[in-house]
Amino acid sequence: MKQLIMFAFCALLYATSWAQEYYxxxxxxxxxxxxxxxxxGSEIKVGTTLYTVAAKNQATAVFTNSAEQVLxxxxxxxxxxxxxxxxxxxxxxxxxxxxxxxTGGFQPSRYFTIGTNATxxxxxxxxxxxxxxxxxxxSRYVVRRTPVGFRxxxxxxxxxxxxxxxxxxxEIAKQSETEIRQKYSLSNxxxxxxxxxxxxxxxxxxxxxxxxxxxxxxxxxxSVTAAIYDNQGKYLGQALTNGQNLQPGSFSFSKINxxxxxxxxxxxxxxxLDRMIIETSQGDKLPDGExxxxxxxxx
Length: 299
Description:
The structure is a single chain. By secondary structure, the protein is of the alpha+beta class. Helix content is 21%, strand content 42%. The strands form five sheets. Strands 5, 6, 7, 8 and 9 form a five-stranded antiparallel β-sheet that branches. It is globular.
């Protein structure tokens, strides 16, 4: 029994200041085990659970620092799939994440800073809201304490993203179309799409496309929807793809995947600019930029 108790405290980090001696007392026999030095910052591992020693008024700081470390790991992931283990209920949330990021639309966060003043959610003491500056644009993220450690609450964060976007739309609504086009460099804005080839990949029909930002605006996010038909005009399906950070005059390649469709049956398609977010170097965002762009299919 003594050995088990001693093992539980093997992860203690000793310090010379503020340390206090504590004993474990067997309630049945009165036998004492110890002393143990406990001080702020010490870590205790009991079984598979790791605890941090902190005074009551310091617990929030310990919570925030640990949550920030998880958020930092989340933001530095190179692929959106790598974020799933860092997300609350990752297995259940991953389908929504897949739909949001689409095929090939995810770009890692190369430049970001996490704000130092995290705030608590009034309705949930186990969560903190961090403001992250992503290349000059601010986004809020919720990090929650769970039984398996701190995790990013992706769905709750999405609610905040929508709130921020709605607030931006209300501010933009106060401006005239001319002012908006001038501010975001949207004069004669065109988004070009070229379907380069149609390919069969296992059970998927894949449209390989090249997109070109034929405007003077910086496109922070874009998504394109394609509907496909056979040579009789029969509808075969619809899917989308998306991307990020498209500089003025630049291009990128993407794929649109259609499940359970045979490529040889595809005779034609229609393309639609689904959504577009325009950004300025000052960090301003235009969340409904597709209204100011025309889509041009290049043959």
